[in-house]
């Protein structure tokens, strides 16, 4: 099991937790003074986690929506998936977007997103005149049928 170093910026900040032993995502919690943030209909608010997380080289932290929060409250990360690079040492913030026609309230301590730590490949890009042939070719959206 990989160990991640976490720095708390807020005394009540909670370390990420898993909902079950096999869960891929670790819940991120809101942590801020003032107790509540209201997100207007179709608006976005910056929600603090109060945490800085050190992700090892060769990995990144992917911040995804929590399915329950999205389906029940209409709240999701505004950028859909956040990418936290291994060299980032700042606070993990979640820009929560309200997709509903009603205001939504986030309380300090609420679970607001989930963090999945994923490996990535470093690549180089080489310009060429032609690419290799495939059966699909340049067929785009819907080109492979159902």
Explain how this protein is built:
With 146 residues, this protein is mainly β. The protein has 1 helix and 10 strands; from the N terminus they run βββββαβββββ. The strands form 3 sheets. Strands 1-4-8-6 form a 4-stranded antiparallel sheet. Strands 2-10-5-7 form a 4-stranded antiparallel sheet, with no helix packed on it. A two-stranded antiparallel ribbon has the order 3-9. The termini are far apart. The model has no long low-confidence stretch (mean pLDDT 94).
Short description:
The chain has one helix at 67-73; strands at 5-8, 26-29, 36-39, 44-54, 59-64, 75-77, 82-84, 91-98, 104-107, 111-119.
Sequence-ordered SSE layout with sheet pairings:
Elements: E1 5-8, E2 26-29, E3 36-39, E4 44-54, E5 59-64, H1 67-73, E6 75-77, E7 82-84, E8 91-98, E9 104-107, E10 111-119
Antiparallel strand pairs: 1-4, 2-10, 3-9, 4-8, 5-7, 5-10, 6-8
